Batch of 3 targets.
Target 1
Amino acid sequence: MAAAAGLALAVAGAVGVAAPAQAAVPDAHGFVLWNGAAVVPSGTWPPATAVSAGGGGFYKVVFPGQAAKGGVVHVTAINERPIWCQALKWGFSGVDEIAYIGCYRPGGVGIDTPFTAVFTSSSPPDGIPGHYGYVHADPSGGIVSEYNSALGSGNVVSATGGPGEYLVRFPALGSPGPFDGSLQLTAVNSSVGAHCEVAKWASNPASVDVLVFCFDGAGAKLKTGFNLTYQLERSLFGSAYPPKYFGYVWNAPPPPVPNLGPPPTNFNSIFGTGVNAVASAGPGMTLVAFRGLAQRPDTVQVTAMGHTGEFCNLLTFWGYNGTTVLVRNVTCFTAAGARVDTGSFTSYNSEF
């Protein structure tokens, strides 16, 4: 309890103490795989990334040498039980980036669990093929941090429809549509358990538009901060080639189960569009296979799509069959913690 309290106080305090230098997109990034007791090297970069457990589902992650202003954090719980993780706070300290993470079960009670987390921050100029953008929004829909690969900034977040409902627009990242690319979404809240899902989305030549719904631990709509990232033929870090090995796939909301989205939502950096596989592994569970992408260190993130407080995690750590990455399985739950067939986005990214 003392460790958890100390970590909570650290979350409440400031972390930025020195201005980091600008670099090519991304300015900085890192990812980590925590198995519940130790950092797993095959799912972690930089190699010296460290995790401190504060108890009660609270964690401090230090990404060495990755200090950057703003940026976003995405985190996915790894557990057979209905558990989600969220970002509490992050910022730079000297040359390092420090992220605080909280993990919860339905009801909003903190709980320890393995997880996988990603931090990335970008600033112009860009000049990389494909489209990429992110927003860190506050509970009122104000933009705390953002990036747009076409404009540098200019994304729009509007609180709409009621508490916990937000419309996000990435202008100038348009594509033929109606669906192109992929999304990752993570709640940001340092006070209570919160999770967010994609309720609706679309792409068109002018923009990418995403309707975000956020909920508290009991499944009620909640005004909360969140991080949303859009990728189209780019890695979740914002870069492409390198890394050479990355991919994403959208399991559109059922029925049927599974229900692959159109080819532009199913991308593989080695083989192109439409080649990643999705199969039902039982109620609420989906096996995802990324052919030809296995290259460690690597990371996986998942996000739910639905309307009533669904959330998704990973049943266990991803594995490999030759050069195929096996995500076994993306597991989705109702707000109350029952397994449910719902939509999901899965993003695989290697460092190389």
Note: Residues 1-5 have pLDDT under 50 and may be disordered.
Target 2
Amino acid sequence: MYDAILVPTDGSDAGDRAVEHAIELATAFDATVHALYVIDAALYSSLEAGVDAVITALESEGQAAVDDVADRCAGAGIDVQTAVVVGTVHRSIRSYVDENDIDLVVMGTHGRQGIERFLLGSVTERTVRTSQVPVLTVRAADDEREDADDGEEEADASV
């Protein structure tokens, strides 16, 4: 069913939970995990000086995040491919899906709601709305969510 599973990661706790789910699915389906870190170019476009230093630092951070996923996959006996790219996050994810024949995207969500979600936007939401493949969203751990009420782990599947 799934041969190639993409897990976009930012190194956050929500991203780590998505990695756990991606590894479990890859194990079940004998799939390859693709770990992707996207440096959001739009966030740094207004910097006049030092943008190269910022991008270099973020590339190092991104490499560490995908290397962590690669180590976890290796420990589980899962094939993995990694990439660090610069671009608009949801568009870069969509391009990666198309260019690498991805069957499923597994990504974390911080569970923001209300005005916070409206003001900050949601890469996960944009990915869900624009993806041509299924997207499994994995919420951050309950102790990280302000709206946690009963301690249950939640994962939402969207197509």
Note: Residues 4-158 form a domain with the Rossmann fold fold (CATH 3.40.50.620).
Target 3
Amino acid sequence: MSLKDKLMDDLKTSMKSKDKVRKDVVTMVRSAVKQKEVDERVELDDQDIIEIISKQVKQKRDAIEDFKKGERDDLVQLTEDEVKILLEYLPEQLSEEELTELVKTAIAQVGATSMKDMGKIMSSLMPEIKGRADGSLVNKIAKDYLK
């Protein structure tokens, strides 16, 4: 079953069960997919949809930080629930230990020795981990090893 079909099935299920948060999240994803398809006049495959969902997860996590600063605990909880739902559609996320190993390997492969080599490391790693890890976490781990 394609990701697009799964989203449609989940939308129907969430409407029947009156799960408003899930319905809203799935509708948001389907809307973003449809928008990109219309804008680019293409049919998106699962990989493209994973990219869209990853971007939305990143936006939601940024929003959580803003909500925490504004002491909006109600919005923090809602947004965290939305992130959990979005993560269900992404491939299994890599643990920090797995990421650390991948970063070490990438540093060795590109021969990185300083922060100037960060671009090489990231361009080598990101295609491999796309949708399975947050780029900012990868960047943080790489910086720790390049100090």
Note: The chain has a mean pLDDT of 90.
